[in-house]
Design brief:
This protein is an alpha/beta fold and about 900 residues long. The chain folds into six domains: about 100 residues, no CATH class; about 270 residues, no CATH class; about 110 residues, 2-Layer Sandwich (Beta-Lactamase); about 60 residues, Signal transduction histidine kinase, dimerisation/phosphotransfer (DHp) domain (Helix Hairpins, Orthogonal Bundle); about 140 residues, 2-Layer Sandwich (Heat Shock Protein 90); about 120 residues, Rossmann fold (3-Layer(aba) Sandwich), CATH 3.40.50. It contains 28 helices and 33 strands. Strands 1, 2, 3, 6, 7, 15 and 16 form a seven-stranded mixed beta sheet that branches. A five-stranded antiparallel beta sheet has the order 18-17-21-20-19, with helices on both faces. Helix 7 packs across helix 9 and helix 20 packs antiparallel against helix 22. The longest helix is centred in the middle third of the chain and has 47 residues.
Length: about 900
Amino acid sequence: MRAATAGLVLVLMVLAVFLLRPAPLADLDAKICDLLARWAGPGQQSGHVVIVEIDERSLNQFGRWPWPRDLVARLSQSILDDGAATVVFDMMFAQADGANDGVFARAIAGKPVIVGYALKFDGDGGAPDCPLPSLPLAVAGPSDSKGAPFFHATGVICSTPVISGSASGSGFLNAAPDHDGALRHIPTVIEYGNRYYPSLALATVNSYRSAAATELSIDWRGAWRMRLDYRVVPLEARSALRLRYRGARRQFPYVSAADVLSAHAPPDLLRGKLAVVGGSAPGMEAPVVTPIDPLFPAVEVQATAIDNLLQGDSFYRPDGARLWELALALVAGSISILLLAHSRLVWGILATLALVAGVWAACTWALASGRMLCSPLPATAALVCAPPALTLIHYLREKKRADAAQQQLVQTRQHAREIMEESEHRYRLLVENVNDAIIVDDVKGRLVFANRRFREWFGVAEGDAAGLILEQYVAPEWRAEVRDRHDRRMRGETVPGQFEFEGIRSDGSRMWIEALVTAVQADGRIIGSQAALRDVTERKRMEEQYLQAQKMESIGRLAGGVAHDFNNLLTVINGYSAMLLERMEAGHEFRRDLEEIHKAGERAADLTQKLLAFSRKQIARPTPLNLNLVVADAKKMFERLIGEDIELITTLSPDLESVVADPSQIHQVLMNLVVNARDAMPDGGKLTIETKNIRTEAAMPYAYLGVSDTGIGLSDDVKQHLFEPFFTTKMHGKGTGLGLATVYGIVQQSGGRIEVSSVVGQGTTFQIYLPGNPAGAVEQPQTAAGPPELRGTETILLVEDQDAVRQFVLATLEGFGYRVLQASNGPDAMALAEGHSAAIHLLVTDIILPVMDGRVLAEKLIALHPETKVLYVSGYSEETIGRGSAIEDDLMFLQKPFTSQALGIRVREILNRGDEQAQKEPLPR
């Protein structure tokens, strides 16, 4: 009885472990389920899915990826011309391709073409102009369901709007592996913005089968069943589809995109089929780990999901199945304990084995007949743990069985040794063909074996590897460390087996190598070592780029934050100093000192603007602009920047077309190009800045801005990558690789284009073309008739959380005669407004406030006092206005620091303006 009780306690402990589900146990459970799925078989393909792969031959024939969109349009049209019923692009077209986007959009308009997009889960918003058609979904289930039927996306990365709008359907590409890294599920429906969006597979099946409606059933467990017209598809939690893979790689019919474009595709291969377009060439393919293949093509994952949905042929494991598994384990374990305790040990063990076989058979039957996946692991574990609970009772009998098992183990080892000897040849072929270099050396470091990859890296002939020393191919500064590690390992010391070093290829170039080294022993004696060497050069380069980008981002955030806070201080310093200067007589003994304070404050304000420009957090203010004025204004600075050994020449067209651009951004473009030109002329030379008018064939006027140097020039290979982020030709640590990428982005944002021409040894010319201003020439400031009248008697509500700034603004406004109500935050301001029965003519508020920001405060106050107008003030940071946005109504915004005069003029302008509706437009985000 005691033994039975102890056994039951042990079974309960096993079940408790399964309730906690530690990671190793979850991995084992997943592998058991994968084994059952393989027993059930891959099922039959529908025969409707064909994969069109953009393979290496396609890239060699039609150019590197990404292809121009007109070529993608040709591919889509060729697939349809070959009779395909639906074309599915397992990819996104997020980057614009100019006019080619329109070509692609027109080619797929009205055609059964599906494109992909991705949803985001990191808290960032999505593109507001993304034309995503939502899924007409009927949700059947209790409205107060406690489950989570869908994943909730927070943003979207979609294809170019013109392409998404022309496609007959769109589907998201999101898929995440399980905890063990294997991909078994894909979500079929994701909720975004209170609307439902289908996966690429679901959107494809709906288009291909012309499904009228999609019905999703949910309960306390989540989404568990989908009905597509007459087909019923079982799901798991959060609308996840458990894939039933059709086998290892390339089980579906494949056809090369090159054959399709060249009209060499097999006849009738695509006729009436559903063609999935994806990449398989190196650099394009995105292999994922699956239970049946660790390098499964991502495009075939989508093909599998589509095929599963077409036939309703997939596995599923409901959340409630785990409770049934634990209940089955409790029953089976209890029966086994009772049999072992009240019968002979042999019969008890046989009964336990029969129970194990019955559990596995039941789970296999449930999967084969109803496609419902139940894991036999909990019951198996409970049954396996039952016999040890009775070890004390059956010790002698079990000892005899253990001796027999030991003898069987010896025989098994002998058999395994024979099998290993037979498979040595196949193992050698495997070692020769892996991507890593594998070597074996002796105690003196002489190579005993080196595979093909090692010989390719270092230019060693197949028969010449024996006797060589690894140090011959190690960079000089690493040789001592590599030798020391080897010697210590040969002496039996504990040495880390994984480390990195630099190697020298046969062509003299360097490569980073990650080594995984272990000692080789024979008869308890160390006779050498074996190592797997991996080329991690690209990974090291990416790590350096990532660290550099993080550093620049941190500096930018610091600069922007300092500038924003410093502007609040400068508002007080410059405001009060200007106020005192207005009141102080010309001959006052302290006037000169006060003027110096005011000048220093103005210089500090200019410095904050430069900090904001450096951190790229300044507001974009495109205005009619003459490039000649920008060049002339910056010329003196450039002369100091480039030094005396470089001659600066400016050739400016007197009748230059005006453009619409941000002057500070154009100044940043010139600064980056001048710095690059200076670095390209270490021994001096000529730097030429030129402007002129250009007319295109369509008679479109352009203003040309050219920056030329007589430096070392650029090779054709460098020019191909010149504007890529992080690409630099400067020495390590001397450049971030972001300067020209920033130039390119500013020019593109301004609606222009940039080109580069260069000859090695003869210099480089950057050519910038900006479209002319359609409104005409730059507006000239009008001469004011006289100083404006700044005084008034209106009521103003002032809201500012900085006490010193609020007191300065209060003194200024009251000095002009206004009646001022003041508050330090939004709730206090609303309380003042609610208790003020008279009109509030103007709200002056900082944009960033504690508890309630300025925008929300303005909306609530206008709802209470519709007559109220608004003036926003801020030192500005990226979070205040919005990244890259322009302020459409400058009159509503006054940037810190400002003077009493500037504040008075702006307040009077707003109060005098008649268009109240324009006042109520919110500040652009």
